[in-house]
Fold this sequence. Notes:
The complex is a heterodimer of chains A (112) and B (117). Chain A has 112 residues and is mainly β.
Amino acid sequence: DTAVSQTPKYLVTQMGNDKSIKCEQNLGHDTMYWYKQDSKKFLKIMFSYNNKELIINETVPNRFSPKSPDKAHLNLHINSLELGDSAVYFCASRHTSGHEQYFGPGTRLTVT
Amino acid sequence: AQTVTQSQPEMSVQEAETVTLSCTYDTSESDYYLFWYKQPPSRQMILVIRQEAYKQQNATENRFSVNFQKAAKSFSLKISDSQLGDAAMYFCARGRTRPLGTYKYIFGTGTRLKVLA
């Protein structure tokens, strides 16, 4: 069984479009994250939700809007896509009492 | 600044040999967690090993072990008996626990490990 899944795994789109990436975890965790990995492989936190509440919001453009309908899901919607948004986006989860994060397979977003 | 530094962008090791990847970090916290993740070409992030800062004993997982020097803020990963499947990007990460309730990872820039047959 897949612990943390993301859809889609690949996303190619044009500048100006709006797209969403979905994440689901079946580990029973209550905290979920979005990380961005840029072309130089650098990983940086974007957002975190705990029990559907936003607890971390790094300096991310307003075009990025996370949504957590329940503890097991965290989606990322991106408006007006730009070339610089091209990256791999990772979802991760953990239990509040734990310190390890479990990552999804990543979504490679390419903006042309 | 709360940073994690991996000073080796790339390393090579001969199959069956031992290699050590370095990581240093900066923190004002006394209680934190350190991790090494492996990212093969499939891009999946795989947890290799973890270390609790309050534990003096170095963590070990089969062929993987760490040298944790808390005073020096150093956390190196040693891979023994290297195998072709160990070839990957390796990321060092620190679990940042402050401010309270905002736990997140701070990642290093990664070290690409090549294993030579």
